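Q: Hi! First time doing this. I have a protein sequence and I read that you can turn it into a structure. Is that right? Here it is:
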Amino acid sequence: MQLPDINLDAISDPAARAVIAQLLNIIEALAAENAALRAENQQLRDELARLKGGSGKPDVAPPTPPPPSDHSSEAERRTRTPRGKPRKNEHLVVTCEQRCVVDPATLPPDAVRHGTTATLVQDLVLQPEVIRFVREVWLVPRTG
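A: Yes, that's right. Below is the predicted 3D structure, encoded as structure tokens:
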């Protein structure tokens, strides 16, 4: 029970003001004690119900209001999000370009050229490298 805010300064009689303040303090203490006793009483009822083989009162959380939804515009909802892995070819640096030319004499007479197609191929080259070091050798006669 929520009491409205009471302005004790509006009471002109000091004795009545003190008595009303004491009564409000007593009411507040009794309300707190009453709430504690209700909670303990419910706990004892739950324990008694469990001992009898039933179940106690379930703990039901109060309903929470749903979070405010973000209303986006139609254009924002229709934009596509990128999916999948990004392409690796965008980051590759071409080190060598080789042109593959077709001899037109080997093609049928009705063949028509439609342009070119570029294809990237990665290759790992492992080759031995043999190094011969030729050193100068000096000899000092007095020290050997």
